[in-house]
From TrEMBL:
Transmembrane segment boundaries: 155-177, 224-244, 274-295, 316-341
Membrane-related topology note: Multi-pass membrane protein
Alphabetized CDD domains for the sequence: 5TM_Oxa1-like
Originating gene: LOC105035743
Domain of life: Eukaryota
Residues spanning the signal sequence: none
GO molecular function: membrane insertase activity
Protein name per UniProt: ALBINO3-like protein 2, chloroplastic isoform X1
GO biological process: protein insertion into mitochondrial inner membrane from matrix
Keywords of the record: Membrane, Transmembrane, Transmembrane helix
One cellular component term from this protein's GO annotations in UniProt: mitochondrial inner membrane
Length: 558
């Protein structure tokens, strides 16, 4: 029934289905002064009927709606009098034995209906089906806006603006909840194994993902889908409100033609005149500003590789999108533009507000992470390029753990020169930070300062209390590699043998480091002529990494 109703409305809009039957030349006693009774009228020969009525009958298709059913069963008896005392002209229309049938398409002489339109009929049917999907939600929004207008009596442009504000306020709790969940995820993410198996790890995708999910559940980390919670609510709401207001404008909803203000008095009209470009320019400008604010704290240099490249091109795409939005704005009714401008303005206000530390504290949101992308000094943080004071944060006021976290962030971003002074300051404040010793050793080893690197790794080994600590794997591996690279193979072999005596770690990254140490140990022993012992360690490594089989085969063949 809904589909039929929508189809009829669609045909009417295309002027294919008139709201009323075609006019017929009915008997009017005022036009003909000679009195003629209904019975006399019906006793006339068929050729005396009005020509317009006959031509109208000829256009009726073979299959349509019965006029008898349409008129509630009014009929004419054999004597020519209408049942129920109907007027003569009404009885005339209901006098056929077969019943008068209305064609849904006026003017179809063959009764083919929509077939005369070719493929346009099927296309209109598809459009009607598509419209029926949004019919109930859009109709509900239109009814809501009508009720709001009847209750307050405000002009329509204020109705649209304030209803948009109410919609955004109602969605705000979802955004706050998402930000809280995202803060928990960011806090626990460093403790989680990667969801995808590392290269040469030997793990299948299924096993690695099950390990990731198990660890996430143990830590109580929220699902990563929370990052898309607000998006899944905001986008449908925006489209629904936009579609409803656009439908009201296109259907010339009552009051919209005079419900505007200033230069947009008629909300059903499209932008025109000297001030016509105001709304399109506002929409494009607000979109561009929102994109810049969103990426304000995002630094592409902190994300090397494919991730940083994708983020860079995504921002470029959003920047260029402002041009199509400017052009689209000229082809949208002004009522829809009022909604769009209001929504974009509220988005900008929301972004700026949620960056305020006081507002975040009142909402219970975690503080934004301050990215130390600057040149670190003993007193404060200076901007590396411009030399301007960007963050007046005294390095002495930071705890050793905080300095270590900042150093690890820079190290993960490939900025070793910025991480080194932070690690040095952290070790000065707390020499027991094992992770700082290991991180410092890794940086020195990458700079080919193997002697200093070995000293830092050995310092970390001496400070680790528990034998099962996974940091021992990193420390023994780093110390062994540093000694071997500087030519002290005996010391390197001793450290790597201690690594082989440790229990296999659970973490994928630690496990990869563990078996890499075994491969290094086997290769070094093979070079020293201890082939049987080298083969023993290579067999263990080959069970985890099949790539070690070629070293094992070379060892056994040699």
């Amino acid at each position: 029934m809904v589909l039929a109703t929508r189809l009829v409305r669609h045909l009417r809009r295309r002027r294919l289905f008139p709201r009323f039957p075609p006019p017929v030349n009915r008997y009017n006693p005022l036009q003909n002064p000679s009195p003629v009774s209904s019975s006399d009228y019906f006793t006339r020969s068929p050729t005396s009927f009005n020509h317009n009525i006959q031509s109208f009958y000829a256009k009726i298709p073979s299959r349509s709606f019965s006029w008898d059913a349409y008129t509630g069963g009014t009929s004419v008896d054999s004597g020519g009098s209408a049942s129920g005392g109907a007027a003569g002209d009404d009885a005339l229309i209901g006098n056929s034995k077969e019943g008068l049938e209305l064609s849904p398409v006026d003017g179809s002489e063959t009764g083919a209906g929509l077939s005369s339109l070719g493929t346009d009929g099927s296309r209109m049917m598809e459009e009607a089906v598509e419209e029926s999907v949004w019919y109930y939600p859009v109709h509900a929004v239109i009814t809501l806006l009508d009720g709001y207008h009847d209750l307050t009596g405000l002009p329509w442009w204020l109705i649209i603006s304030t209803s948009t504000l109410a919609l955004r306020v109602s969605l705000l709790p979802v955004l706050i909840l998402q930000l809280k969940k995202a803060g928990e995820i960011a806090k626990l993410f460093p403790k989680l194994p990667p969801p995808f198996p590392p290269p040469l790890s030997g793990r299948s995708f299924r096993d690695q993902f099950l390990l990731f999910r198990k660890k996430r559940q143990e830590l109580g980390c929220p699902s990563f889908l929370w990052n898309f919670a607000f998006l899944t609510v905001q986008v449908p709401s925006f489209l629904l409100w936009m579609t409803a207001i656009r439908r009201m404008c296109l259907d010339n909803h009552s009051g919209l033609d005079s419900g505007g203000t200033l230069w947009f008095q008629n909300l059903t009209d499209f932008p025109h005149g000297i001030l016509g470009p105001v709304f399109p320019i506002l929409i494009a400008s607000l979109h561009y500003i929102n994109v810049q604010v969103s990426f304000q704290t995002f630094k592409f240099e902190n994300y090397p590789g494919i991730l940083g490249l994708l983020a860079k091109y995504y921002k470029l795409y959003l920047d260029i999108l402002a041009i199509p939005l400017l052009l689209i704005g000229f082809h949208i009714p002004q009522g829809s533009l009022v909604y769009w401008v209001t929504n974009s303005s509220l988005t900008l206000v929301q972004q700026l507000s949620l960056r305020n530390s006081y507002i975040r504290m009142k909402l219970g949101l975690p503080e934004l992470v301050v990215r130390m992308r600057d040149k670190i000094s003993r007193e404060n943080v200076l901007h590396e390029k411009s030399g301007l004071l960007e963050h007046a944060i005294s390095a002495d006021s930071l705890s050793p753990e905080k300095l270590l976290d900042l150093a690890l962030e820079n190290l993960a971003a490939g900025q070793q020169d910025k991480a080194l002074p932070l690690l040095g300051m952290a070790l000065e404040k707390n020499p027991e930070l094992v992770r700082a010793w290991i991180a410092m050793g890794q940086i020195l080893c990458s700079k080919k300062l193997f002697l200093e690197a070995a000293e830092h790794f050995e310092s970390a080994i001496s400070k680790i209390q528990e034998e099962e600590d996974v940091l021992l794997v990193l420390a023994y591996f780093g110390a062994g590699v540093s000694h071997i690279c500087q030519g002290n193979k005996s010391m390197g072999i001793d450290h790597l043998k201690r690594l082989a005596e440790l229990k296999e770690p659970d973490g994928p990254m630690d496990k990869a480091c563990y078996y890499s140490g075994l491969v290094m140990l086997g290769s070094t022993l093979f070079q020293e002529g201890e082939k049987s012992e080298a083969a023993k360690y290579l067999r263990i490594a080959a069970a985890y990494d099949p790539g070690a089989n070629r070293y094992l085969k070379e060892c056994e063949d040699g």
